[in-house]
RNA sequence: GGGCCCGUAGGGUAGCUUGGUCGAUCCUUUUAGCUUUGGGAGCUAGAGACUCCAGUUCAAAUCUGGGCGGGCCCA
């Protein structure tokens, strides 16, 4: 059984690089570091993820917009903390043609500073609120650390929802909605995640608070897939986003954002993949079922005709299906589609045509069974559900096994994955633990978790837990 | 910001230390034809590379310098 050169469980990082190339997701040979070319299959996958995101946005009354890539320096500079956070990692446009620009422009690292001057023009009255927008665009950050396909890049495929509300309370409702959206979306992607409230020193530049969405990769490192920010009126003040309330008074808006990126694809690859390649959850798989004709000399037509008939039948039942008629051996095709992570494979040969059956093979567990043509649509849909359930359960099991709640640093040492330790609330103590565990703070659990212990560093009573992990 | 390493067909490699035997190795890829197809088939004939510039030399993939590109480690 041919498999990847590097094994997922032995050398995850090398395995990941190998898979990304083999499965034709992206081409890292583009001559700028961290700017990779999306190849057709990778882009298709990303588009399907984006579609699921769009579906959620439509369901929750968000409007899609598109803002320009370039932002004038003066707009960018209005919120002080924000510049501090992003200043060192933006790309600047300083020249146009032969002329030096009077005012520099920057490539958006995120779009607050592009959008908010416009929001200030759009919003006049409380009846304009809430304003719920989103866009799916590319953003640019000058990463100096090591880059990694889909995980740390300089041109980022980015989803960002930006909302404006009458007050803090209404913005909090939005945060709640965002958590629900994440719940539904990542369920479809079969990716269990944890939500953590980031510590103050690590929140998004300019935010009132930040909630991060993290998944655990098989390497034991966490990967942040998204973040939800409560801005309060931190941006509304400098950008003058205000409205006239019912009582005639002018008030600042309260804002939130919700961001995710192509890292989702990194997580799909890492969490579900195996030594044969990708394993795509049926919800995002660009091809959900591939039909492989098993052709024997003299029986080409009957086999191909049954394949075509089945193709039409599945297509009409809303299944994304493909018939692979390439002139290569069936085995070759199996390997190819396994690499691409297609959830179900159907084999049809002369024997099957005769018996009015098909052979159905599951990608995730390699289970093979014969199914009657008559009942195949129903069975395929059941298999989709079952595959999704299994993928989610396996990932959840791994996450649970690698989350440790302990009371002392001694117990924490040597544990893999996510570690929760009592925390007194002081930055110094968390930093100390970061150093000892050689990891990063993820934040506190967002749901209240009882903690009656003492801080393992300073010994003071701790009411909450702090999560630590090695991160990407 | 500081340090280290690397660059040979589309991908992976051998050759470099000690310049000549390189008209550059092997696997994969790829084109045409025949043949085959229930887990990467076979045969025949083809295609495809020394990162760029300068230097040393009778002679450079191999040595020197620089450019471009890539990777790693430390802060």
The chain-level mean pLDDT equals: 94
Number of helices: 14
Straight-line distance between termini? 32 Å
State the CATH class of the largest domain.
Answer: Alpha Beta
- Count the beta strands: 25
In percent, how much strand structure appears in the residues? 25-35%
Flag low-confidence runs. none
Helix content: 25-40%
What is the strand arrangement across the widest sheet?
3-7-8-14-11-10-9-22-25-21-20
Report the structural category.
alpha+beta
Short description:
The chain has 472 residues and is α+β, with helices and mostly antiparallel strands.
Structure, described:
- This protein has 472 residues and is an alpha+beta fold.
- It folds into three domains: 12-272, BirA Bifunctional Protein, domain 2 (2-Layer Sandwich), CATH 3.30.930.10; 289-383, Rossmann fold (3-Layer(aba) Sandwich), CATH 3.40.50; 403-469, 2-Layer Sandwich (Translation Initiation Factor IF3), CATH 3.30.110.30.
- Helix content is 35%, strand content 28%.
- The chain contains 14 helices and 25 strands.
- The protein has helices spanning 12-22, 40-59, 73-76, 80-86, 112-122, 168-188, 236-239, 263-272, 300-316, 330-340, 350-355, 376-401, 409-412, 427-437, and strands at residues 26-27, 37-38, 63-64, 70-72, 92-96, 99-107, 131-140, 155-165, 194-197, 209-216, 222-232, 242-244, 250-252, 254-261, 289-293, 321-323, 344-348, 357-362, 368-372, 403-405, 418-423, 440-445, 453-454, 461-462, 464-469.
- The protein has an eleven-stranded mixed sheet.
- β15, α9 and β16 (321-323) form a beta-alpha-beta unit.
- α2 (40-59) crosses α6.
- The longest helix has 26 residues, at 376-401.
- The mean pLDDT is 94.
- The protein binds one RNA strand of 75 nucleotides through α10 and α11.
């Amino acid at each position: 059984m041919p498999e990847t050169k590097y094994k997922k469980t032995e050398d995850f990082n090398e395995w990941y690089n190998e898979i990304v190339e083999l499965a034709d997701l992206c081409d890292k040979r583009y001559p700028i570091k961290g700017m990779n070319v999306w190849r057709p299959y990778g882009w298709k996958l990303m588009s399907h993820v984006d579609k699921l995101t769009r579906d959620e946005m439509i369901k929750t009354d968000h409007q899609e917009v598109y803002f320009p890539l370039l932002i004038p320096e003066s707009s960018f500079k209005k919120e002080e903390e924000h510049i501090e956070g992003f200043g060192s990692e933006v790309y600047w446009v300083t020249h146009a043609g032969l002329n030096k620009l009077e005012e520099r422009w920057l490539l958006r690292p995120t779009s607050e500073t592009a959008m908010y001057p416009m929001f200030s023009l759009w919003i006049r009255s409380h009846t304009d609120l809430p304003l719920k927008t989103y866009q799916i665009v590319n953003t640019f950050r000058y990463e100096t650390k090591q880059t990694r396909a889909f995980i740390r890049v300089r041109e980022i495929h980015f989803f960002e929802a930006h909302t404006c509300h009458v007050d803090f309370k209404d913005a909090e409702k939005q945060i709640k909605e965002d958590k629900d959206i994440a719940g539904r979306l990542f369920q479809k992607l079969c990716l269990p995640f944890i939500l953590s409230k980031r510590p103050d020193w690590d929140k998004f530049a300019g935010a009132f608070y930040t909630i991060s969405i993290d998944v655990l990769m098989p390497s034991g490192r966490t990967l942040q897939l998204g973040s939800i920010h409560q801005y309060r009126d931190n941006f509304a003040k400098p950008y003058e986003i205000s409205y006239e309330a019912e009582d005639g008074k002018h008030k600042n808006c309260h804002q939130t954002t919700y961001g995710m990126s192509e890292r989702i694809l990194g997580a799909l690859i890492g969490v579900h993949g195996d030594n044969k390649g990708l394993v795509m959850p049926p919800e995002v798989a660009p091809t959900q079922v591939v039909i492989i004709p098993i052709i024997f000399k003299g029986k080409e037509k009957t086999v191909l005709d049954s394949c075509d008939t089945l193709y039409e039948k599945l297509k009409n039942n809303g299944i994304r299906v493909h018939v692979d008629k390439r002139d290569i051996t069936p085995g070759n095709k199996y390997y190819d589609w396994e690499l691409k992570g297609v959830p179900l494979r159907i084999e049809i040969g002369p024997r099957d045509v005769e018996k009015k059956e098909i052979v159905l093979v599951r990608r995730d567990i390699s289970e093979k069974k014969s199914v009657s043509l008559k009942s195949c649509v129903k069975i395929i849909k059941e298999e989709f559900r079952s595959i999704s359930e299994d993928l989610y359960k396996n990932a959840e099991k791994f996450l649970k096994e690698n989350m440790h709640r302990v009371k002392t640093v001694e117990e924490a040492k040597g544990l893999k994955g996510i570690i929760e330790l009592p925390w007194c609330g002081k930055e110094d103590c968390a930093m100390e633990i970061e150093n000892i565990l050689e990891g990063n703070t993820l934040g506190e659990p967002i749901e209240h978790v009882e903690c009656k212990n003492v801080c393992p560093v300073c010994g003071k009573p701790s009411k909450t837990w702090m999560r630590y992990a090695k991160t990407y």
